[in-house]
Amino acid sequence: MTFINYASREINCKIVYYGPGLCGKTTNIQWIHEQANPEKRGKLVSLATETDRTLFFDFLPLDMGTVKGFKVRFHLYTVPGQVFYDASRKLILRGCDGVIFVADSQRPRMEANIEAIANLATNLKDNGFDIRTIPYVLQLNKRDMPTAEKVDEMERLLRFRNEPMIEGVASQGVGVIETLKACARQILMELQRS
Amino acid sequence: MSKLDLVMFEEEFKQLQDIIGRLQKDASAKVVFLVDKNGQQIASAGEVQSIDATSLASLTAGNVAATDGLAKLIGEKEFSLLFHEGEKDNLHISIVGKRGILVVIFDQGSSLALVRLRVKKASRELQEIFERVETRANEESGPGTKFESPFSEITDDDIDKLFGD
User: Fold this and answer.
1) Among all residues of chain B, which has the CA nearest to that of A184?
2) Closest chain B CA to residue A63
3) CA separation for the pair A36, B36 (Å, rounded)
4) Which among A4, A94, A181 has the least Cβ separation from residue B163?
Protein backbone atom coordinates (compact mmCIF):
# COMPACT_ATOMS: atom_id res chain seq x y z
CA MET A 1 0.00 0.00 0.00
CA THR A 2 1.60 3.18 -1.17
CA PHE A 3 1.25 6.04 1.27
CA ILE A 4 1.03 9.40 -0.49
CA ASN A 5 1.20 12.37 1.85
CA TYR A 6 0.25 15.58 0.08
CA ALA A 7 0.97 17.68 3.14
CA SER A 8 4.64 16.71 3.40
CA ARG A 9 4.82 15.80 -0.31
CA GLU A 10 6.13 12.35 0.39
CA ILE A 11 5.47 8.98 -1.10
CA ASN A 12 6.40 5.78 0.74
CA CYS A 13 6.62 2.37 -0.91
CA LYS A 14 7.20 -0.99 0.76
CA ILE A 15 9.35 -3.58 -0.99
CA VAL A 16 9.73 -7.09 0.43
CA TYR A 17 12.64 -9.45 -0.28
CA TYR A 18 11.37 -13.01 -0.30
CA GLY A 19 13.09 -16.36 -0.84
CA PRO A 20 14.22 -19.61 0.78
CA GLY A 21 16.46 -19.71 3.84
CA LEU A 22 20.06 -18.52 3.31
CA CYS A 23 19.40 -17.31 -0.25
CA GLY A 24 20.83 -13.84 0.47
CA LYS A 25 17.86 -11.57 1.21
CA THR A 26 19.57 -9.90 4.16
CA THR A 27 22.84 -9.74 2.19
CA ASN A 28 21.01 -7.75 -0.52
CA ILE A 29 19.81 -5.06 1.84
CA GLN A 30 23.08 -5.04 3.80
CA TRP A 31 24.85 -4.21 0.55
CA ILE A 32 22.39 -1.43 -0.22
CA HIS A 33 22.87 -0.10 3.30
CA GLU A 34 26.67 -0.09 2.93
CA GLN A 35 26.58 1.59 -0.46
CA ALA A 36 23.88 4.17 0.16
CA ASN A 37 24.75 7.75 0.92
CA PRO A 38 24.64 7.95 4.76
CA GLU A 39 22.41 11.02 4.51
CA LYS A 40 19.86 9.16 2.45
CA ARG A 41 19.67 5.88 4.28
CA GLY A 42 18.06 5.20 7.62
CA LYS A 43 19.17 2.71 10.20
CA LEU A 44 19.26 -0.95 9.22
CA VAL A 45 17.10 -2.76 11.75
CA SER A 46 17.73 -6.51 11.98
CA LEU A 47 15.66 -8.78 14.16
CA ALA A 48 17.95 -11.79 13.97
CA THR A 49 18.98 -14.73 16.12
CA GLU A 50 22.42 -15.03 17.71
CA THR A 51 23.60 -16.87 14.63
CA ASP A 52 22.44 -14.04 12.34
CA ARG A 53 19.46 -15.88 10.97
CA THR A 54 16.56 -13.50 10.41
CA LEU A 55 13.99 -14.04 13.16
CA PHE A 56 11.29 -11.57 12.17
CA PHE A 57 12.51 -9.09 9.57
CA ASP A 58 15.26 -6.71 8.49
CA PHE A 59 14.21 -3.20 7.67
CA LEU A 60 15.97 -0.44 5.77
CA PRO A 61 14.40 2.93 4.94
CA LEU A 62 15.92 4.60 1.89
CA ASP A 63 15.38 8.15 0.63
CA MET A 64 15.60 8.09 -3.14
CA GLY A 65 15.19 11.73 -4.12
CA THR A 66 12.20 13.37 -5.74
CA VAL A 67 9.81 12.57 -8.56
CA LYS A 68 7.35 15.23 -9.70
CA GLY A 69 8.09 17.22 -6.55
CA PHE A 70 7.39 14.29 -4.26
CA LYS A 71 10.06 12.84 -2.00
CA VAL A 72 10.23 9.11 -2.73
CA ARG A 73 11.11 6.79 0.10
CA PHE A 74 11.45 3.03 -0.12
CA HIS A 75 11.03 0.82 2.91
CA LEU A 76 12.91 -2.41 2.28
CA TYR A 77 11.97 -5.49 4.30
CA THR A 78 13.26 -9.04 4.26
CA VAL A 79 11.32 -12.02 5.54
CA PRO A 80 12.76 -14.91 7.55
CA GLY A 81 13.39 -17.66 4.99
CA GLN A 82 13.26 -20.67 7.23
CA VAL A 83 10.17 -22.77 6.60
CA PHE A 84 8.80 -22.68 10.16
CA TYR A 85 8.59 -18.87 10.26
CA ASP A 86 5.67 -18.83 7.87
CA ALA A 87 3.36 -16.84 10.16
CA SER A 88 5.94 -14.03 10.31
CA ARG A 89 6.42 -14.05 6.54
CA LYS A 90 2.72 -13.57 6.00
CA LEU A 91 2.64 -10.56 8.35
CA ILE A 92 5.51 -8.83 6.62
CA LEU A 93 3.80 -9.00 3.21
CA ARG A 94 0.94 -6.93 4.60
CA GLY A 95 0.58 -3.75 2.56
CA CYS A 96 3.59 -4.37 0.34
CA ASP A 97 3.95 -2.57 -3.01
CA GLY A 98 6.42 -4.92 -4.63
CA VAL A 99 8.25 -8.20 -4.09
CA ILE A 100 11.79 -9.21 -4.97
CA PHE A 101 12.24 -12.97 -5.05
CA VAL A 102 15.83 -13.93 -4.29
CA ALA A 103 16.52 -17.40 -5.66
CA ASP A 104 19.52 -19.45 -4.56
CA SER A 105 21.38 -20.60 -7.69
CA GLN A 106 22.95 -23.64 -6.04
CA ARG A 107 21.55 -26.76 -7.68
CA PRO A 108 20.56 -28.52 -4.43
CA ARG A 109 18.42 -25.49 -3.51
CA MET A 110 16.12 -25.57 -6.57
CA GLU A 111 13.37 -27.38 -4.74
CA ALA A 112 13.55 -24.86 -1.88
CA ASN A 113 13.25 -22.04 -4.45
CA ILE A 114 10.17 -23.60 -6.01
CA GLU A 115 8.57 -24.19 -2.62
CA ALA A 116 9.30 -20.61 -1.58
CA ILE A 117 7.58 -19.20 -4.70
CA ALA A 118 4.53 -21.36 -4.00
CA ASN A 119 4.59 -20.14 -0.41
CA LEU A 120 4.88 -16.54 -1.60
CA ALA A 121 1.84 -16.99 -3.85
CA THR A 122 -0.21 -18.32 -0.93
CA ASN A 123 0.88 -15.62 1.49
CA LEU A 124 0.29 -12.84 -1.04
CA LYS A 125 -3.17 -14.21 -1.70
CA ASP A 126 -3.92 -14.22 2.03
CA ASN A 127 -2.99 -10.53 2.05
CA GLY A 128 -5.26 -9.76 -0.90
CA PHE A 129 -2.54 -9.64 -3.58
CA ASP A 130 -2.03 -11.66 -6.74
CA ILE A 131 1.48 -12.94 -7.49
CA ARG A 132 0.70 -12.62 -11.21
CA THR A 133 0.06 -8.89 -11.05
CA ILE A 134 2.01 -7.39 -8.13
CA PRO A 135 5.30 -5.62 -9.08
CA TYR A 136 7.75 -8.51 -8.99
CA VAL A 137 11.41 -9.21 -9.79
CA LEU A 138 13.32 -12.50 -9.86
CA GLN A 139 16.94 -12.34 -8.76
CA LEU A 140 19.17 -15.36 -9.41
CA ASN A 141 21.62 -14.95 -6.56
CA LYS A 142 24.93 -16.70 -5.85
CA ARG A 143 25.89 -16.99 -9.52
CA ASP A 144 29.52 -17.37 -8.36
CA MET A 145 28.92 -20.69 -6.63
CA PRO A 146 30.55 -23.78 -8.20
CA THR A 147 27.26 -25.69 -8.07
CA ALA A 148 25.23 -22.90 -9.67
CA GLU A 149 22.45 -24.19 -11.92
CA LYS A 150 22.34 -22.96 -15.53
CA VAL A 151 20.40 -19.73 -16.01
CA ASP A 152 18.16 -21.32 -18.67
CA GLU A 153 17.17 -24.09 -16.33
CA MET A 154 16.44 -21.69 -13.47
CA GLU A 155 14.38 -19.57 -15.80
CA ARG A 156 12.38 -22.63 -16.82
CA LEU A 157 11.78 -23.62 -13.21
CA LEU A 158 11.22 -20.25 -11.53
CA ARG A 159 10.16 -17.61 -14.01
CA PHE A 160 6.43 -17.60 -14.57
CA ARG A 161 5.25 -14.18 -15.76
CA ASN A 162 7.95 -12.64 -17.88
CA GLU A 163 9.18 -10.72 -14.85
CA PRO A 164 12.60 -9.02 -14.92
CA MET A 165 15.21 -11.68 -14.17
CA ILE A 166 18.55 -10.46 -12.84
CA GLU A 167 21.70 -12.46 -12.15
CA GLY A 168 23.44 -11.49 -8.96
CA VAL A 169 26.17 -12.11 -6.43
CA ALA A 170 24.74 -10.16 -3.52
CA SER A 171 27.80 -10.64 -1.31
CA GLN A 172 29.79 -8.64 -3.89
CA GLY A 173 26.96 -6.30 -4.78
CA VAL A 174 26.54 -7.73 -8.29
CA GLY A 175 22.97 -7.18 -9.52
CA VAL A 176 21.76 -5.78 -6.20
CA ILE A 177 20.95 -2.26 -7.32
CA GLU A 178 19.65 -3.44 -10.71
CA THR A 179 17.21 -5.70 -8.89
CA LEU A 180 15.93 -2.92 -6.64
CA LYS A 181 15.66 -0.60 -9.61
CA ALA A 182 13.65 -3.11 -11.63
CA CYS A 183 11.18 -3.40 -8.77
CA ALA A 184 11.01 0.35 -8.13
CA ARG A 185 10.33 0.94 -11.83
CA GLN A 186 7.31 -1.34 -11.77
CA ILE A 187 5.94 0.21 -8.58
CA LEU A 188 6.23 3.76 -9.90
CA MET A 189 4.80 2.77 -13.27
CA GLU A 190 1.91 1.18 -11.40
CA LEU A 191 1.27 4.54 -9.71
CA GLN A 192 1.24 6.13 -13.12
CA ARG A 193 -1.42 3.74 -14.34
CA SER A 194 -3.64 3.93 -11.29
CA MET B 1 -5.80 4.61 -7.60
CA SER B 2 -5.87 1.21 -5.92
CA LYS B 3 -8.36 1.19 -3.09
CA LEU B 4 -5.59 0.11 -0.76
CA ASP B 5 -3.60 3.28 -1.28
CA LEU B 6 -3.62 5.80 1.52
CA VAL B 7 -3.76 9.33 0.23
CA MET B 8 -3.56 12.10 2.80
CA PHE B 9 -4.31 15.70 1.94
CA GLU B 10 -3.14 18.83 3.71
CA GLU B 11 -6.36 19.47 5.60
CA GLU B 12 -6.72 15.96 7.00
CA PHE B 13 -3.06 15.84 7.86
CA LYS B 14 -3.36 19.07 9.82
CA GLN B 15 -6.35 17.74 11.71
CA LEU B 16 -4.47 14.55 12.64
CA GLN B 17 -1.50 16.63 13.68
CA ASP B 18 -3.69 18.84 15.88
CA ILE B 19 -5.26 15.86 17.62
CA ILE B 20 -2.01 14.13 18.45
CA GLY B 21 -0.42 17.43 19.49
CA ARG B 22 -3.27 17.93 21.94
CA LEU B 23 -3.01 14.33 23.12
CA GLN B 24 0.69 14.75 23.82
CA LYS B 25 0.02 17.76 26.05
CA ASP B 26 -3.15 16.43 27.74
CA ALA B 27 -1.53 13.09 28.54
CA SER B 28 1.74 14.73 29.67
CA ALA B 29 3.48 12.38 27.27
CA LYS B 30 7.00 12.76 25.90
CA VAL B 31 6.19 11.77 22.35
CA VAL B 32 3.14 10.66 20.41
CA PHE B 33 3.34 8.94 17.03
CA LEU B 34 0.61 8.01 14.63
CA VAL B 35 1.71 5.10 12.47
CA ASP B 36 -0.11 3.08 9.86
CA LYS B 37 -0.42 -0.69 10.20
CA ASN B 38 2.03 -1.24 7.36
CA GLY B 39 4.80 0.49 9.27
CA GLN B 40 4.74 4.01 7.88
CA GLN B 41 4.75 7.04 10.08
CA ILE B 42 1.82 9.40 9.52
CA ALA B 43 2.32 12.12 12.13
CA SER B 44 4.15 12.87 15.36
CA ALA B 45 4.24 15.30 18.27
CA GLY B 46 6.58 16.06 21.19
CA GLU B 47 10.32 15.44 21.60
CA VAL B 48 10.51 13.67 18.28
CA GLN B 49 14.19 14.43 17.58
CA SER B 50 15.35 12.07 20.32
CA ILE B 51 13.91 9.02 18.56
CA ASP B 52 14.52 7.21 15.28
CA ALA B 53 10.93 7.60 14.14
CA THR B 54 11.18 5.48 10.98
CA SER B 55 12.50 2.45 12.85
CA LEU B 56 9.97 3.01 15.60
CA ALA B 57 7.15 3.00 13.06
CA SER B 58 8.24 -0.21 11.37
CA LEU B 59 8.96 -2.05 14.63
CA THR B 60 5.64 -0.94 16.12
CA ALA B 61 3.78 -2.22 13.08
CA GLY B 62 5.72 -5.49 13.28
CA ASN B 63 4.89 -5.74 16.96
CA VAL B 64 1.19 -5.08 16.37
CA ALA B 65 1.12 -7.51 13.45
CA ALA B 66 2.75 -10.24 15.56
CA THR B 67 0.34 -9.57 18.43
CA ASP B 68 -2.57 -9.70 15.97
CA GLY B 69 -1.32 -13.12 14.91
CA LEU B 70 -1.22 -14.21 18.55
CA ALA B 71 -4.75 -12.90 19.09
CA LYS B 72 -6.08 -14.93 16.17
CA LEU B 73 -4.32 -18.04 17.47
CA ILE B 74 -6.35 -17.89 20.66
CA GLY B 75 -9.56 -16.90 18.89
CA GLU B 76 -9.52 -13.13 19.51
CA LYS B 77 -10.07 -10.61 16.72
CA GLU B 78 -7.21 -8.42 17.88
CA PHE B 79 -5.60 -7.02 21.01
CA SER B 80 -6.45 -3.36 20.80
CA LEU B 81 -3.91 -2.26 23.38
CA LEU B 82 -0.26 -3.11 24.10
CA PHE B 83 1.67 -1.72 26.99
CA HIS B 84 5.44 -1.99 27.51
CA GLU B 85 6.83 -0.88 30.84
CA GLY B 86 10.43 0.26 31.05
CA GLU B 87 12.63 1.51 33.91
CA LYS B 88 12.08 5.12 32.92
CA ASP B 89 9.96 5.28 29.81
CA ASN B 90 6.84 3.36 28.93
CA LEU B 91 5.23 2.61 25.61
CA HIS B 92 1.46 2.62 25.15
CA ILE B 93 0.35 1.25 21.79
CA SER B 94 -3.28 1.20 20.69
CA ILE B 95 -5.13 0.44 17.49
CA VAL B 96 -7.13 3.23 15.85
CA GLY B 97 -9.82 2.14 13.44
CA LYS B 98 -8.78 -0.35 10.78
CA ARG B 99 -5.39 0.98 9.82
CA GLY B 100 -3.94 3.31 12.47
CA ILE B 101 -1.66 2.70 15.43
CA LEU B 102 -1.21 5.30 18.13
CA VAL B 103 2.07 5.17 20.06
CA VAL B 104 2.45 7.18 23.26
CA ILE B 105 5.80 7.34 25.05
CA PHE B 106 5.64 8.61 28.62
CA ASP B 107 7.67 8.61 31.83
CA GLN B 108 6.87 9.11 35.52
CA GLY B 109 5.60 12.60 34.66
CA SER B 110 2.38 10.91 33.58
CA SER B 111 0.52 7.72 34.44
CA LEU B 112 -0.96 4.78 32.59
CA ALA B 113 -4.46 5.77 33.72
CA LEU B 114 -4.13 9.31 32.38
CA VAL B 115 -2.65 8.09 29.09
CA ARG B 116 -5.45 5.55 28.65
CA LEU B 117 -8.09 8.15 29.31
CA ARG B 118 -6.68 10.69 26.87
CA VAL B 119 -5.91 8.09 24.21
CA LYS B 120 -9.53 6.96 24.28
CA LYS B 121 -10.81 10.41 23.41
CA ALA B 122 -8.16 11.08 20.78
CA SER B 123 -8.75 7.67 19.18
CA ARG B 124 -12.38 8.48 18.53
CA GLU B 125 -11.46 11.73 16.80
CA LEU B 126 -8.68 10.09 14.78
CA GLN B 127 -11.00 7.32 13.70
CA GLU B 128 -13.45 9.81 12.27
CA ILE B 129 -10.74 11.31 10.10
CA PHE B 130 -9.52 7.91 8.94
CA GLU B 131 -13.06 7.02 7.97
CA ARG B 132 -13.39 10.22 6.01
CA VAL B 133 -10.11 9.51 4.17
CA GLU B 134 -11.33 6.03 3.37
CA THR B 135 -14.75 7.14 2.17
CA ARG B 136 -13.13 9.66 -0.13
CA ALA B 137 -10.68 7.07 -1.42
CA ASN B 138 -13.56 4.71 -2.23
CA GLU B 139 -15.53 7.43 -3.97
CA GLU B 140 -12.57 8.52 -6.02
CA SER B 141 -11.42 5.06 -7.01
CA GLY B 142 -14.40 4.69 -9.31
CA PRO B 143 -14.52 5.75 -12.97
CA GLY B 144 -14.74 9.45 -13.73
CA THR B 145 -12.63 10.32 -10.73
CA LYS B 146 -11.82 13.95 -10.05
CA PHE B 147 -8.56 13.04 -8.38
CA GLU B 148 -5.54 13.24 -10.61
CA SER B 149 -2.39 11.46 -9.53
CA PRO B 150 0.78 13.56 -9.71
CA PHE B 151 2.48 10.46 -11.10
CA SER B 152 0.38 10.19 -14.22
CA GLU B 153 3.23 11.57 -16.30
CA ILE B 154 6.15 9.79 -14.72
CA THR B 155 8.81 8.72 -17.21
CA ASP B 156 11.66 6.22 -17.36
CA ASP B 157 14.03 9.16 -17.03
CA ASP B 158 12.45 10.17 -13.72
CA ILE B 159 13.06 6.68 -12.40
CA ASP B 160 16.65 6.58 -13.68
CA LYS B 161 17.29 9.87 -11.92
CA LEU B 162 16.21 8.38 -8.61
CA PHE B 163 19.03 5.90 -8.93
CA GLY B 164 21.52 8.56 -9.91
CA ASP B 165 21.93 7.48 -13.55
Assistant:
1) B159
2) B162
3) 26
4) A181
Q: What is the pLDDT of residues B59-78, one digit of tens each?
A: 999 999 899 889 989 999 98
Q: What is B81-105 written as a DSSP string?
A: EEEEE-SS-EEEEEEETTTEEEEEE
CATH code for position A72: 3.40.50.300
The pLDDT-based confidence of B152 (bands split at 50, 70, 90) is: confident
What string of pLDDT tens digits covers the 194 residues of chain A? 678 888 888 889 999 999 999 999 999 999 999 999 888 888 899 888 888 888 889 999 999 888 888 899 999 999 999 988 999 999 999 999 999 999 999 999 999 999 999 999 999 999 999 999 999 999 999 999 999 999 999 999 999 999 999 999 999 999 999 999 999 999 988 887 76
Supply the range of the domain harboring residue A118.
3-193
If residue B33 lies in a helix (H) or strand (E), which one and from where to where?
Answer: strand B31-36
- Dihedral of CA B134/B139/B141/B147: which sign? negative
Structural domains of chain B ordered from first start: 10-146 (3.30.450.30)
Mutation choice for B interface testing from A1, A39, A177, A185 by most B CBs within 10 A: A1
Cβ within 8 Å, pair B150-A2: no
Residue B109, classed as helix, strand or coil, is coil
Element (H, E) at B24: helix B10-26
- Measured in angstroms, the CA of A103 and the nearest CA of chain B are apart by 24
Contact A64 B162 (CB under 8 A): yes
CB contact under 8 A, A59 and B58: yes
CB spacing of B158 vs A56 below 8 angstroms: no
- What's the domain count of chain A? 1
Q: pLDDT tens-digit profile of B112-135?
A: 999 999 999 999 999 999 998 888
Partner-chain contact A95 B66, CB within 8 Å: no
Cβ-Cβ contacts under 8 Å between A and B: the total is 126
Give the span between the Cα atoms of B1 and B142, in whole angstroms: 9
Task: Tell me if A91 and B161 make a contact (CB, 8 A cut-off).
Answer: no
